[in-house]
Automatic annotation (TrEMBL):
PANTHER family: NOP2 YEAST -RELATED NOL1/NOP2/FMU SUN DOMAIN-CONTAINING (PTHR22807), RIBOSOMAL RNA SMALL SUBUNIT METHYLTRANSFERASE B-RELATED (PTHR22807:SF53). GO terms for molecular function: RNA binding; RNA methyltransferase activity. Residues 149-410 form the SAM-dependent MTase RsmB/NOP-type domain. SUPFAM superfamilies: S-adenosyl-L-methionine-dependent methyltransferases. It comes from Flavobacterium limnosediminis JC2902. This is Putative sun protein.
C-alpha cells in the first residue's frame, strides 16, 4: 500500500465527498467507477492532486473494505459514523495526522496499527476478500497461485492505451503525448499498447477526442490479434458490449470487410457507434440480439467469430474492486451455464474452415479451459478442433487476468 507524499493534510471538502461516495457504494449498491466519475465533477476548482486524492481514496477504501471494517470494528449495513471510522483507519495506515474534527475524536491510532499487523497474517483480511471467493480461488488455482494472484489484483491498475492504427502509429502517438508531458512505455510483446508511466486523465486530450487511441488493458489487447483477422473478412463479435475489442478488430481489418457487433443491450451498441465514429472505424455493423433469429441468420456465415463471454470478472478485480463485494456464489454458477449456452449457440456462426475465439476476463479454470473441454464433447463442439489457448495471470503478466482459446471449424 503506497503512501501519498504530495500532501499529508486532510481537506474537509475532499474527505466529505469521499465519505458520501462510499455511503452510496456500500449501502446503495452503486458502482465505484460511476461514483468516482460523479464525485470528480463536484467542484470545478479542484486541481489534479485533489481529484487524485478523491479517486484513489474511494478505490482504496472499497478495495480494502473487509480489512478496514474489521480494524474499525464496524459491521454492515454501515451508517455514516461507521464509514468515518473506516476512513480514519485508512488515514492512520497512510500516515496522515488526523485533524481535530469531531469524527476523529475517539480514533485509537496505536490500536489500529497493531490490529493491521495482526490481521495481515490472514490472507482473507490481508487481501480483503469474502470467504467464499477465497475458498473458490484456492479450490480452482491452488493455495500458492491464488495467494500471488490476489496480491496482484490488489495493486493499482496501470493506465494502458491501445493505439488506433486506422489513424496513427504507436511512435507518432507517443510523441504527441510526450509533448503533453505524458510519458509512456512501449511494451515489445503488445504491439498496439502504450503504458503510462504515471496516471493522467488522457480523456481530456485532443488525441483522445480525435480517436487516436482507446484505453484498454494490455491483456484485453491480445484477444483481437488472437482471432487472426484479415482485411476483407466477415467477422462477428458476438458479445461486443461497448466495443473495446470490436474497435481493435476493425483496426486490424483496416476498415475492409464486414464486422458485425452483436449485443443484448442496445444502449451498449449506441456507445459503440459513438466510439466507432471517433475512431474512424466504418466497417462495423451493430446488431441487437432481440431474439434467436438474429443469430440463426448468421449460421455458417462468418470467417471469424469472437465470443468474449460474460464471466465472473475475477481477472479484473484491480479495475473493479467493488465487484468483490457485489459478486455472489450463485452468480458464478449461473454464469457458467450462460457461457456453455453462448458457446453452443454462437459457435454455429463460424463457417467451415473458419476460426472461433472464446475469451473471458476470469482466471478460474471452470470458466475457461474446462468450458472448452466440455464444449468440444458436445454435438456442436465435434465440428471444431482445439488449436491453442492462453492463460494470463495478473501475478505473471502485471496486467489483467484473461483467458482465450482458439478453435478451428472443420471443413
Amino acid at each position: 500500500m503506497q503512501a501519498y507524499f504530495f500532501t499529508m493534510r486532510l481537506h474537509r471538502n475532499l474527505v466529505f465527498t469521499t465519505i458520501d461516495s462510499l455511503m452510496a457504494i456500500f449501502n446503495e449498491g452503486q458502482y465505484a467507477d460511476k461514483m468516482v466519475a460523479f464525485a470528480l465533477k463536484k467542484d470545478k476548482r479542484w486541481g489534479s492532486h485533489d481529484r487524485k486524492f478523491v479517486a484513489e481514496t474511494i478505490y482504496e477504501i472499497v478495495r480494502w473494505k473487509r480489512l478496514y471494517a474489521e480494524i474499525a470494528e464496524v459491521k454492515e449495513p454501515y451508517d455514516r459514523d461507521n464509514i468515518w471510522r473506516m476512513f480514519a483507519v485508512w488515514a492512520v495506515l497512510r500516515g496522515y495526522t488526523l485533524p481535530d474534527w469531531k469524527y476523529f475524536e475517539s480514533t485509537p491510532v496505536r490500536k489500529i496499527k497493531g490490529r493491521f499487523d495482526e490481521l495481515s497474517k490472514d490472507r482473507r483480511f490481508r487481501e480483503s476478500i469474502p470467504d467464499w471467493m477465497d475458498e473458490l480461488g484456492v479450490k480452482e488455482l491452488g493455495e500458492e497461485i491464488w495467494t500471488k494472484e490476489l496480491a496482484a489484483q490488489n495493486e493499482q491498475a496501470k493506465v494502458i492505451l491501445r493505439v488506433n492504427t486506422l489513424k496513427t502509429t504507436r511512435e507518432k502517438l507517443r510523441a504527441i503525448l510526450m509533448d503533453l508531458d505524458i510519458d509512456t512505455i512501449t511494451p515489445a510483446e503488445y504491439p498496439d499498447a502504450l503504458i503510462l508511466k504515471e496516471r493522467a486523465n488522457v480523456f481530456l486530450t485532443d488525441a483522445f477526442k480525435e480517436g487516436l487511441f482507446e484505453v484498454q488493458d494490455a491483456s484485453s489487447q491480445l484477444v483481437a490479434r488472437f482471432l487472426d483477422v484479415k482485411p476483407g473478412m466477415r467477422v462477428v463479435d458476438t458479445c461486443a458490449g461497448a466495443g473495446g475489442k470490436t474497435l481493435h478488430i476493425a483496426s486490424l481489418m483496416e476498415n475492409k470487410g464486414q464486422l458485425i457487433a452483436m449485443d443484448l443491450y442496445e444502449s451498449k451498441l449506441k456507445q459503440l457507434k459513438l466510439r466507432a465514429k471517433r475512431n474512424g472505424a466504418f466497417n462495423i455493423e451493430p446488431r441487437v440480439i432481440e431474439n434467436t433469429k438474429v443469430i440463426k441468420k448468421l449460421y455458417e456465415k462468418a470467417d471469424r467469430v469472437l465470443i468474449d463471454a460474460p464471466c465472473s470478472g475475477l481477472g479484473v478485480l484491480k479495475r473493479n474492486p467493488d465487484s468483490k463485494w457485489k459478486l455472489q456464489p450463485e452468480f458464478i454458477d449461473n454464469i457458467k451455464k450462460v457461457q456453455a449456452e453462448v458457446l453452443e449457440s454462437y459457435s454455429k456462426i463460424v463457417k467451415p474452415g473458419g476460426k472461433l475465439v472464446y475469451a473471458t476476463c476470469s482466471v478460474l479454470p471452470s470458466e475457461n479451459q474446462e468450458q472448452i473441454e466440455k464444449f468440444l464433447k458436445t454435438e456442436s463442439g465435434k465440428n471444431f478442433t482445439f488449436v491453442k489457448d492462453v492463460k494470463v495471470l495478473a501475478s505473471e503478466s502485471g496486467f489483467d487476468g484473461f483467458y482465450m482459446a482458439l478453435l478451428d471449424r472443420k471443413q
